[in-house]
């Protein structure tokens, strides 16, 4: 917790600037009730994570936090979050939202459709912040609280519009971990739905807690584990590092993918959960845990824990530790995505929503059909670079593959088309690497249709970039239309061929690339030998 800033809104009111709001208080969110802009009240560890998630998902965010270094602190969390997202996904993220720091709660919330409160865990402070939010926010602005343990009915005391306040309890780092415990309190079903769709749209998995309790679901569990950890240190049985080791080399790996009960079902062998319960149930009554006893947090115990923690992790700054943690979380989530499981399944769903948005009319670039199609732009990310300092080979295929996907969306191969059991598979690829492509270089792909018939599409992508906007690489591809259930070639839907025909009407007049259709050159061994 940042000690300097347990400021109450009345103190904050002294620095409030006037005339901040363009929207009158009574203004509706918008016609559809969807969230378009967000405010963050509190930009510490958790507020900073929320701010990063909102911004990276394209929402403008106004932040109020009286901490004198709030800008720097949020900036550092945001930098780490951007770094993590570059590794997390290649899906087209929306343009980043605008971040502004304001000097009052009023300025922060007056235009916002969604407000996330992340001030320190003190009930009086939270309530006074809500009173200020309520005074200045639009009438159907949603308010989410990051509280780790307060129940919504405690939070809403004295609040005139409790139907719009809910607990939205996230997990650190908020920009990566998907789950958010949503505790509705007296929120209306409509507002609950709005909150859930907003949280889902920013890549989260809202889990509605059906009955409010202190500390919701997760912190009840986490506190039990933490309490046992404190006892183990207090009793001199284990150090902070040893406790962390049994988790990270052992059951923590299981928890990341199956949680507690599914793991224990397997631990029951073929007889499953019933056998597990009968074998280990009695142990619950043995003195395996300290139950609700809490060790006194004496200076001595705190010193021991802090010293052990320094010995364990003191060689890294907190920001470095965050980056190590983020890299590991990204690796786990990507592995789980490959298995379409747990947090990986959420990531997969989120990515497909990003692709769908990118290909929707809203964000589709204006395309001039008379020219090669400019459907894909990117930048060489830091983990795309090989030991030569160049974009590594597999990333060329990634960039061209994404450009092919963009082209297929352009001609009408959308989610519904795929769901109908039809798709286009790439059956042949020829990539030419023409110039060095270095880290950070902006890339632009131009796509041209070289021909098509009822079952095949032939395209070529040209990759441009670098300081002179030069041609860096080319990729020529043959795609085959298939019936995915039969895994056999099949004619395309007429809608696709009509669209291809429209593109072809223009592209047939473009100058044919002289390299197209040519194989990799042969090496004449006779001349090499002579
Ligand atoms: N740290 C964690 O692991 C988690 C914390 N939470 C919850 O998130 C909330 C915030 O916790 P942290 O971010 O950890 O605390 P923090 O101490 O890192 O940040 C709190 C921020 O609130 C600011 N603040 C203080 N008074 C304010 C006011 N009147 N208006 C606006 N900003 C004000 C402070 O300057 C500080 O930057 C708490 O309710 C906590 O229980 C939820 C999930 C995890
Ligand atoms: C320790 N804590 C209660 C603040 C933890 C949380 O609320 C969730 C988390 O991120 O572990």
TrEMBL record:
Similarity comment: Belongs to the 3-hydroxyacyl-CoA dehydrogenase family. L-carnitine dehydrogenase subfamily.
EC number: 1.1.1.108
InterPro entries in alphabetical order: 3-OHacyl-CoA_DH_NAD-bd, 3HC_DH_C, 6-PGluconate_DH-like_C_sf, 6PGD_dom2, HotDog_dom_sf, L-carnitine_dehydrogenase, NAD(P)-bd_dom_sf
Listed HAMAP family: L_carnitine_dehydrog
Main location: cytoplasm
Kinase recorded as keyword: no
Binding site for NAD(+): 42-47
Keywords noted in UniProt: Cytoplasm, NAD, Oxidoreductase
GO cellular component: cytoplasm
Protein name in the entry: L-carnitine dehydrogenase
Pathway note: Amine and polyamine metabolism; carnitine metabolism
Keyword NAD belongs to the record: yes
Residue ranges occupied by any 3-hydroxyacyl-CoA dehydrogenase C-terminal domain in the UniProt entry: 217-283
Subunit record text: Homodimer.
GO molecular function: carnitine 3-dehydrogenase activity; NAD+ binding
Function: Catalyzes the NAD(+)-dependent oxidation of L-carnitine to 3-dehydrocarnitine.
Stretches assigned to the 3-hydroxyacyl-CoA dehydrogenase NAD binding domain: 38-212
Subcellular location: Cytoplasm
Catalytic activity: carnitine + NAD(+) = 3-dehydrocarnitine + NADH + H(+)
């Amino acid at each position: 917790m940042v000690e300097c800033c347990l400021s109450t809104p009345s103190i904050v009111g002294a620095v409030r600037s006037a005339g901040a709001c363009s929207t009158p208080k009574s203004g509706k969110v918008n016609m559809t009730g969807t969230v378009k802009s967000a405010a963050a009240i509190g930009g510490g560890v958790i507020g900073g994570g929320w701010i990063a998630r909102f911004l990276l998902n394209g929402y403008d965010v106004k932040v109020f936090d009286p901490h004198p270094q709030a800008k720097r602190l949020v900036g550092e969390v945001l930098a780490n979050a951007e770094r993590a997202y570059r590794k997390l996904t290649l899906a087209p993220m929306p343009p980043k939202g605008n971040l502004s720091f304001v000097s009052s709660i009023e300025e922060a919330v007056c235009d916002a459709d969604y407000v996330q409160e992340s001030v320190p865990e003190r009930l009086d402070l939270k309530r006074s912040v809500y009173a200020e939010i309520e005074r200045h926010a639009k009438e159907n602005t949603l308010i989410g609280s990051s509280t780790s343990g307060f129940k919504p009915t405690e939070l809403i005391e004295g609040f005139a519009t409790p139907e719009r306040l809910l607990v939205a309890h996230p997990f650190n780092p908020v920009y990566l971990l998907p789950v958010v415990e949503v505790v509705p309190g007296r929120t209306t079903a409509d507002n609950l739905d709005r909150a859930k769709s907003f949280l889902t749209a920013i890549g989260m998995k809202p889990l509605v807690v059906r009955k409010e309790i202190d500390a919701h679901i997760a912190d009840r569990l986490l506190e039990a584990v933490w309490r046992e950890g404190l006892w183990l240190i207090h009793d001199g049985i284990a150090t902070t590092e040893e406790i962390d080791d049994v988790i990270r080399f052992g059951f923590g790996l299981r928890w990341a993918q199956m949680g507690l009960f599914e793991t224990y079902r397997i631990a029951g062998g073929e007889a499953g959960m019933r056998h597990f319960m009968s074998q280990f149930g009695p142990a619950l009554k043995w003195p395996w845990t300290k139950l609700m006893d809490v060790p006194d947090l004496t200076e001595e115990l705190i010193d021991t824990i802090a010293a052990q923690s320094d010995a364990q992790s003191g060689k890294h700054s907190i920001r470095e530790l965050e980056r190590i943690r983020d890299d590991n979380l990204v690796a786990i989530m990507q592995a789980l995505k490959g298995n379409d499981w747990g947090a990986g399944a959420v990531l997969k769903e989120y990515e497909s929503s990003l692709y769908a948005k990118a290909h929707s009319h809203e964000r589709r670039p204006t395309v001039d059909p008379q020219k090669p199609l400019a459907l894909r732009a990117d930048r060489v990310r830091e983990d795309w670079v090989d030991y030569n300092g160049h974009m590594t080979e597999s990333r060329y295929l990634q960039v061209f593959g994404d450009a092919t996907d963009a082209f297929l969306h352009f001609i009408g191969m959308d989610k519904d088309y795929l769901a109908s059991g039809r798709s286009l598979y790439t059956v042949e690829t020829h990539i030419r690497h023409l110039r060095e492509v270095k880290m950070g270089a902006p890339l632009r792909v131009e796509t041209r249709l070289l021909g098509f018939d009822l079952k095949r599409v032939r395209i070529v992508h040209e990759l441009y970039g670098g300081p002179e906007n030069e041609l860096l690489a080319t990729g020529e591809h043959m795609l085959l239309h298939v019936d995915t259930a039969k895994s056999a070639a099949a004619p395309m839907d007429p809608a696709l061929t009509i669209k291809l025909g429209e593109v072809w009407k223009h592209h047939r007049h473009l100058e044919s690339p002289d390299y197209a259709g040519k194989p990799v050159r042969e090496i004449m061994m006779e001349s090499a030998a002579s």
